[in-house]
Specification:
Helix content is 36%, strand content 22%. It has 283 residues and is of the alpha+beta class. The protein has two domains: 13-137, Arc Repressor Mutant, subunit A (Orthogonal Bundle), CATH 1.10.10; 176-281, Beta-Lactamase (2-Layer Sandwich), CATH 3.30.450.130. Helix 5 (86-101) packs across helix 6. The structure holds zinc ion. Zinc ion binds next to helix 5, strand 4 and helix 6.
Length: 283
């Protein structure tokens, strides 16, 4: 006998985001209020000192990093560590809401750490919860429309980060990922810790991760290796400089297979933790 398998209609995360934003009254707002989402979902929220008050068995996460937020499905409770900055706290709550509503996410206790909540996580469920949190934070498609009608620049990152009450990193990443034009965000981390001891040594900054618009990936590349030019490091990391004090230059990227060189415009900026670069083709 031939056997068939039944399939069931599955709600896409995108539809879930729209449903939540609409029904929790967020489309009428300038930027998201996670508290209204919690109330709509009938979830409680608390914040406490994880290092001393989290039970021992919950303190050891999969990746072994510091726990930052948790969701107890049975208690309908979300909690965050009280040391988080305001923006991280909001993002972490949205991340836990993602675990709560996304299909296939276990109805259990989630303890999420710094690694899971970072953009570079390789854990699938953490990545899904991060994507869901970013969709909520940037009010679904609204950000995309605004990002595409503005210049790809640090002043746009600053303007939209202020508007959505989001971090510069999350905003810059969203700006390139939702862009119809070719652009890439490169995030650099400081490598040479020797600089802390030898104050005259120049710290070097190498690539932590890259994010790019779909058309950039098909036309150019998905990631690259390299360091921030010393003159850019010197310009953006001077004390008293803000994100708006960016450094613009041209950089050449060579294809490792063909050795072909392509010139891009690079705009570097600094958020006191990482150096960022917005890369666009030279016009
Ligand atoms: Zn998580």
């Amino acid at each position: 006998m031939t056997s068939f398998r039944a399939g069931y209609l599955e709600i896409e995360p995108r539809e879930l985001v729209r449903y939540l934003l609409r029904n929790a009254g967020q489309f009428d707002r300038e930027y998201i209020n996670p508290q209204e989402l919690l109330e709509f979902l009938k979830l409680d929220y608390t914040s406490f000192h994880f290092a001393t008050e989290l039970p021992e068995e919950a303190r050891c996460t999969l990746a072994g990093a510091s726990p930052r937020a948790l969701l107890s499905f049975a208690d309908r409770l979300i909690a965050t560590d009280d040391s988080l900055s305001v923006k991280r706290e909001r993002f972490s709550v949205l991340h836990e809401i993602g675990h709560y509503v996304l299909p296939h996410h276990e109805h259990a206790l989630y303890v999420c750490d710094d690694i899971g909540l970072s953009f570079g996580t390789r854990l699938m469920l953490e990545k899904e919860a991060n994507d869901f949190a970013a969709d909520l934070l940037f009010l679904g498609d609204r950000f995309s429309a605004e990002a595409n009608s503005r210049q790809i620049s640090t002043s746009t990152v600053k303007e939209l980060a202020t508007r959505y009450q989001s971090s510069f990193e999350a905003t810059a990443r969203r700006l390139v990922e939702k862009n119809f034009r070719p652009c890439m965000l490169i995030v650099f981390k400081q490598k040479n810790r020797q600089h802390n001891i030898d104050v005259d040594a120049t710290p070097s900054w190498d690539v932590r991760y890259c994010a790019a618009s779909p058309i950039f990936k098909t036309r150019f590349f998905e990631k690259l290796r390299g360091e921030v030019p010393p003159e850019a490091v010197a310009a953006v990391t001077q004390s008293g400089k803000g994100i708006e004090d960016s450094y613009v230059c041209e950089i050449s990227v060579s294809d490792s297979a063909t050795d072909k060189q392509t010139i891009f415009q690079a705009e570097f900026f600094f958020n006191t933790y990482n150096i960022f670069c917005l890369l666009t083709p030279k016009t």
